[in-house]
Amino acid sequence: MDEEITIIDTNTRYEKIRNFFINNRKLLISISITLILILFSFYFYQIYKDKQKKDLADKYNSAVIEYENGDKSKIVLLMREIIEDKDNTYSPLGLYFLIDNNLINNKNEINNLFDSLIHKTKLEAEIKNLMIYKKGLYNSNFVSENELIKILNPIINSESIWRSHALFLMAEYFYSNNEKQKSKEFFNQILTLANSNPDIKLQSEKRLNRDLSE
Predict the structure, then answer these.
(1) CATH number of 126-214
(2) Which of 107, 150, 159, 171 could form a disulfide with 186 if both were Cys (CB 3.0 to 4.6 A apart)?
(3) What are φ and ψ of residue 55, in 5° steps?
């Protein structure tokens, strides 16, 4: 008797499952097709992104190779295109190359490129903080105290690994302007940070002991 009940229950379950598939056949087919289309879309999107990355790498490498003997205005144009592509790897490299080789002299133009990378490019958090620090470093020789602090504040008020670098830049900025008390305050902040860069911390200690001791 128990075996018969078990067989009936099993047959009933199979029948329910069969009816479910029959009654929802169109819906299940639609879901299957949608999933397949999503998978194919993702696959082709990855192919597109990989090709785009390779094209950017080729463009960047070509510009670097051409730099020694090529048309510098053409190199600037290529690097600007790379920056405007908002790639998280080659766009920052393009800007660094322009700055390191003094290919753009207009400070506003350089700052606009920095802002494009910082605010419009999907960068990892610490890469973005590095960009902010480099913008501060670039501007430190010609902007006012308030402008430099405004640039660096997102790092100074964070737990970023670049925080000690930003504090050191501010400390050296004030030291070069003979504002020794302000300089000392920033150097001391570096010494109290839990995650200060070891080299930055050592340089800060040397500066405090050698030049700012009372």
Answers:
(1) 1.25.40
(2) 171
(3) -60, -40
